[in-house]
Structure formats: C-alpha cells, structure tokens
Amino acid sequence: MSNKIEYYFTHMTYSINTLRRILKTGKIVPSKLLKNKYSVFSGYAKYDHIYTNIYFCDLKNLTDVPDFTILIKSTAINTNANMEFHGGWKLQGSECIKMKKNTDVVKNISKIHRFVKNKRNGVPRGILNHEFLFGKPISVKKYVFGIVCYNAESFIKINKMIIRYGYNIQIYNEHIPTSFV
User: What is the per-residue pLDDT across 151-176, written as a single tens digit (0 to 9) for each?
Assistant: First the structure.
C-alpha cells in the first residue's frame, strides 16, 4: 500500500427529487434540516449529521450503490467539523472514531482503512459495513465530483440540472469510479 490512501465519500439519496433539491440549494445538509419527503433513510427521525460511506480506491469496498448516489471528494474532510466514523450502521458498531476539523486526518483515515479492509466482527463489506458522518453541510460546487445514475431517462434529467446550476459534475452510469477523479 502506498503512503497516500485514495478515497472518497458516497451519499445515497435514492430519489431524483432529493437530488434535485441538493443541486438547487448547492449543499448536502443533515436530515434535521430537511422536510420528511427528502429524508429517505432516516424516515421521520432528524439527525445532526450527513450520513455517508467511505470508498477506498485500493479496496474497492463498495461494489453496488443505488441510483442518485452522490460522490464527494476526500477534501471535504479538511473543512468539516464534528465528523464520526462507525464500524457499523446507524451509530452502532465496534469501532467509533470522532474527529474534529484539526484532527490528524491521515492517522484516522489509516485506522478507518484498516477497519474496512479487515471487516471486523463479521460485518460484511458494502454500505452496511460502516458509516462516515459529517457534522456540517457539504458544498456541492466545492466537493461533489460525481453522481451515479443507471437509468437513461433520469440521466438526461440530471445532466440538465447539472448544466442549469453550473456544476462540473460527472454522471456515472455503469460503475462507480475505482480511482479518485
């Protein structure tokens, strides 16, 4: 393994309406700031964080992500605060790493990489293996580099939104990228 670990984050929306709202407002926000119709995973619960997964390019640990998944640059970690990693789903799991903006990111990403690689406690690889939580909104313009969309009709709609709102975002319609773009 090289000294530099390449990774990015994935945020699943499952809905073109939620994706439209994100592109229109220019930011991904915690569910506590959303109307219920935009909060798919948390239902009516309101959380203080933005839930994501972390994709390690050398591990290829996320094989299937659904339509309307947003791909976020690793640099988003440098400007955010109150971040958490959980080795499991919904704030549960054997591993918990809390990070502040000035935390040693390289050291903590290395720990997270080891956890995901080893699949501790029988937790399978994939989206339920872990979660990475951001405590502050994420700027679409600064940090989003891609959107996953497998449906041709939705692909066209998303492309129009990207152009309308002036983003430099690529749409991935087959597989998520295996290296950081």
Answer: 989 999 999 999 999 999 999 998 78
**Beta bridge pairs of residue 50:** 134
Beta-sheet strands, E only, within the chain: 7-12, 27-28, 50-56, 69-72, 83-86, 96-99, 131-134, 138-139, 144-148, 170-172
DSSP state of 45: -
Buried b (16+ CB within 10 A) or exposed e, 46-75: ebebbbbbbbbeeeebbeebebbbbbbbbe
The tokens for 79 are: 């400007």
Strand 27-28 with 96-99, pairing: unpaired
Structure letter (DSSP) for residue 151: -
pLDDT in tens, 96-106: 888 877 677 88
**59 Rama sector, left if φ>0, alpha if ψ -120 to 50, beta otherwise:** alpha
Residues 62-92 pLDDT 10s: 877 888 999 999 999 877 778 888 887 665 5
Pairing of strands 170-172, 144-148: parallel
**Where do the domains of the chain lie?**
7-172
Which one, of 77, 66, 55, 76, lies nearest residue 125 by Cα? 55
CB neighbour list of residue 93: distance below 8 Å, 6 or more residues apart: 86, 87, 121, 123, 130
CB atoms within 10 A of CB 121: 11
